[in-house]
């Protein structure tokens, strides 16, 4: 039995934490929105792999209550990276390891700085999952976690892999963490990006329109090119196969229904968007490597603009404006 | 005194027609929205080049009333190209010439087919202009018309140039019409495109944001590359100078204030957008020529998507959707 703290128990953290708890591990959830509901009624998972209901869930409202654990799974949104150190820190003892189960670029660097790279792994969950009512999680499809250790420590990869597999979680140890991050970005950049730049839309709208679909594919090919350049620049021989990635990601997306990306959900709810980690940081990395990423950069600029419009920070023209001449 | 019919007397047609009438030409305006107002109160132009008021304006509600003329200036929106033949036709006699004062690609081909290429010219107005109340036009800045004949007939270029200059209209005879169209597109594609894809915004918002500005510049460079390939493919030795175009267009845009592009105005008013002529046709032409135009293509797809969202034709996610799991 492994002691596990789940920090940031949204849909992803809640789902994987619940799987680990179901398998008998000592899982402790740091909760905010769902605290009272889970304390009262447990955690209910609807899943094509079998629904289940955890009635006795260890929950905490503050990180100090969690106690020291063997593994911290941090599934905060990247927009909350600024508070990750204080939320994760109290659970970390001399032998604690940390899995940053978060998307985007520029994640594990922070954990490595705070806690030492030797104990930090990253994980990318390719999973369709949405939160329902408090205490309810709808797992819709897929679920594989792609893993890598910050320093490529293969024994830690094996240990983490075994832990997740003990809970019947599908895993793959990536050639390295950088590879895993770019592979996941190859889906997130086109689909999160277009889901917001397109006005808050689901994946079926993107793959069903010729222009948006072509834009998604073009963005995906740019991500692979940037990722491969990043791998090469960092001495890795691993490469993403562009055509294979495109074929696989579109095949997966075709069967998702009108899936709502996490960024579209945040957009509709008025939450902060993970635009820095998922769009802006990869664009910066690509430009620093001299890789042309025009589609990615356009999506990044237009997602930021959509966010400003939504928050009332951009001047949008109105019918009333049109009755007046432009002022300088 | 030249007999001139202005077909599609929006801001652009109204302004240039009024200048020609002011110079003493026999100008007849085919009007719709502004018919009663202009018949009652004339046409009032506010302009940095001098305000003026035409009190006695020849207006018509139907093309048959216009009579045969020496020059037809067709300044319909490209979205009305389908009705241009029947609106222009009644004014065309054996010696009538036609100026298509319209943006985008795929314009004069239609007029040439209907009326014969030998009498067709194209003009691109680089002008900041907005309609005000019915019968009122606000000329804000610039005003040069760049000209070219469909078959490169230099005597017709000279004749049209002289006609426009007789009304103190600033003109330039372009190396050829194709060159003039692409040069104008180098502004229209980035700024019309981003003004709609960015949520209905003015030019100051675009040039004032680093991400949008970089996107505009990237799109502009793609337009120039596509235009130069199109010129080469059609046996023209003329070339747009990429850096010169970028420097000039941004310098012009910097001094426009928060100018509202025609596409942003159409977007805000719920009118049909000139997305085919200004975005989709140039993207198709570029792709047919093998020129990579990822930024242009992304803007084209996202403008079409913004248009669908505005017209209720795209499924946009709502807060209510988020309480239900994705359905397949």
Outline of the structure:
Helix content of chain A is 45%, strand content 17%.
Please give a structural write-up.
With 328 residues, chain A is an alpha/beta fold. Chain A folds into two domains: 3-174, NAD(P)-binding Rossmann-like Domain (Rossmann fold), CATH 3.40.50; 179-310, N-(1-d-carboxylethyl)-l-norvaline Dehydrogenase, domain 2, CATH 1.10.1040.10. Chain A contains twelve helices and ten strands. In chain A, strands 1, 2, 3, 4, 5, 6, 7, 8, 9 and 10 form a ten-stranded mixed β-sheet that branches. In chain A, strand 8 and strand 9 form a beta hairpin. Chain A is globular, with a radius of gyration of 20 Å. Chain A starts with a strand and ends in an 18-residue tail after the last helix. Chains A and B meet through helix 8, helix 10 and helix 12 of A and helix 8, helix 10 and helix 12 of B.
Task: Itemize the secondary structure elements and their pairings.
The structure is a homodimer.
Chain A: E1 3-7, H1 11-22, E2 26-30, H2 35-41, E3 43-46, E4 52-54, E5 58-60, E6 71-74, H3 84-88, E7 97-100, H4 108-115, E8 120-131, E9 136-149, H5 154-165, E10 171-173, H6 177-197, H7 203-208, H8 210-233, H9 242-254, H10 262-269, H11 275-288, H12 294-310
Parallel strand pairs in A: 1-2, 1-6, 2-5, 3-9, 6-7, 7-8, 9-10
Antiparallel strand pairs in A: 3-4, 8-9
Question: Helicity range of the residues of chain A?
Answer: 40-55%
Structural class of chain A: alpha/beta
Question: CATH superfamily of the largest domain in chain A, called what?
Answer: NAD(P)-binding Rossmann-like Domain
**Number of domain units of chain A:** 2
Output the CATH topology of the largest domain in chain A: Rossmann fold
Largest interface comes to: A-B, 57 and 57 residues
Multimerization state: homodimer
Strand content of chain A: 15-25%
General form of chain A = globular
The first-to-last residue Cα distance of chain A is 68 Å
Residue-averaged pLDDT of chain A, rounded?
95
Order of helices and strands of chain A: EHEHEEEEHEHEEHEHHHHHHH
Outline the low-pLDDT stretches of chain A.
Answer: none
How many β-strands of chain A, per DSSP? 10
Rounded to the nearest angstrom, the radius of gyration of chain A is 20 Å
The largest pleated sheet of chain A is described as:
10 strands, mixed
CATH architecture of the largest domain in chain A: 3-Layer(aba) Sandwich
**Count of individual helical segments of chain A:** 12
What is the CATH C level class of the largest domain in chain A, in words? Alpha Beta
């Amino acid at each position: 039995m492994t002691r596990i703290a789940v920090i940031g128990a949204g849909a992803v953290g809640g789902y994987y934490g619940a799987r680990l708890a179901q398998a008998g591990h000592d899982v402790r959830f740091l909760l905010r929105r769902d605290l009272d509901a889970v304390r009262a009624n447990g955690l209910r998972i609807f899943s094509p792999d079998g629904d289940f209901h955890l009635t006795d869930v260890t929950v905490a409202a503050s990180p100090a209550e969690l106690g020291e654990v063997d593994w911290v799974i941090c599934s905060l949104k990247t927009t909350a990276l600024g508070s990750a150190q204080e939320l994760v820190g109290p659970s970390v003892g001399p032998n604690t390891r940390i899995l940053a189960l978060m998307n985007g670029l520029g994640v594990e660097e922070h954990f490595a700085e705070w806690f030492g790279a030797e104990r930090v792994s990253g994980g990318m969950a390719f999973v369709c999952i949405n939160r329902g009512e408090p205490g309810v999680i709808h797992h819709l499809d897929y679920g594989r976690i792609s893993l890598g250790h910050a320093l490529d420590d293969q024994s830690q990869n094996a240990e983490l892999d075994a832990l997740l597999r003990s809970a019947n979680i599908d895993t793959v140890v990536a050639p390295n963490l950088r590879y895993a991050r770019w592979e996941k970005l190859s889906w997130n950049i086109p689909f999160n990006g277009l889901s917001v730049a397109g006005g808050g839309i689901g994946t079926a709208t993107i793959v069903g329109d010729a222009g948006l679909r072509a834009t998604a594919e073009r963005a995906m090919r740019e991500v692979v090119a940037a990722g491969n350049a990043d791998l090469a620049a960092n001495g890795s021989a691993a490469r993403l196969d562009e055509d294979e990635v495109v074929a696989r990601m579109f095949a997966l997306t075709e069967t998702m229904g009108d899936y709502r990306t996490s960024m579209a959900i945040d957009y509709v709810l008025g939450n902060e968007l993970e635009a820095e980690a998922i769009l802006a940081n990869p664009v910066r990395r690509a430009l620093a490597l001299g890789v042309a990423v025009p589609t990615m950069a356009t999506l990044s600029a237009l997602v930021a603009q959509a966010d400003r419009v939504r928050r009332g920070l951009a001047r949008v023209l109105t019918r009333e404006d049109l009755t007046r001449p432009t002022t300088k």
